[in-house]
Amino acid sequence: MPPRIPVTEDQIDRVVSEFYARVRSHPALGAVFAAHVDDWPTHEEKIGRFWRNALLLQRCYDGNPMQVHRAAGNVKSQHFPVWLSLFDAVLDQELPQPLAQAWSALAHRIGRGLSYGLPSEQGAPAMPYLGEAWVKKNPLPATDDR
Ligand code: HEM
């Protein structure tokens, strides 16, 4: 199967490693991750498989990020814009523009899906979680990628 976005495995590894290096020292995100991840090489290896699955359509990741984020307890919908802007900065640094833009659009789309149903900082859900079936029946407009 041809890749969805033609990045190399090497580029994926560089983006993942630079991104989590910045996450670890980030004033807001660092503590959220520190509560769950102490083996960073294992985490990064898993995230690398997640992105190879999403970008290159290799079938190498079969986890459930939605469930993992909900179970984490300290991952809030407000973290997503922060996470995504940090991710965009790394994409811009590591990749040629067209690739950075395409990967960014996909990350924003995935992030929107993952943030549904997570509690907001105030404790109330930012949006009611309507379930996978509803999300499938009501796709987001393709023009609203970023
Ligand atoms: C587009 C945005 C995001 C993507 C694509 C993403 C993807 C993932 C994936 C694939 C995992 C591994 C799940 C597994 O164990 O199989 C994960 C774990 C995790 N994510 Fe995210 N994530 C995103 C946003 C966030 C945000 C905004 C936060 C909050 C700061 C966050 C915090 C975490 C934490 C703490 C874990 C580790 C949980 C654990 O190992 O117990 N993520 N993420």
From TrEMBL:
InterPro entries: Globin-like_sf, Globin/Proto, Hemoglobin_trunc. Keywords: Heme, Iron, Metal-binding, Transport. Heme binds at H69. It holds the Pfam family Bac_globin. GO terms for molecular function: heme binding; metal ion binding; oxygen binding. SUPFAM superfamilies: Globin-like. This is Hemoglobin. The lineage of its organism: Bacteria, Pseudomonadati, Pseudomonadota, Alphaproteobacteria, Rhodobacterales.
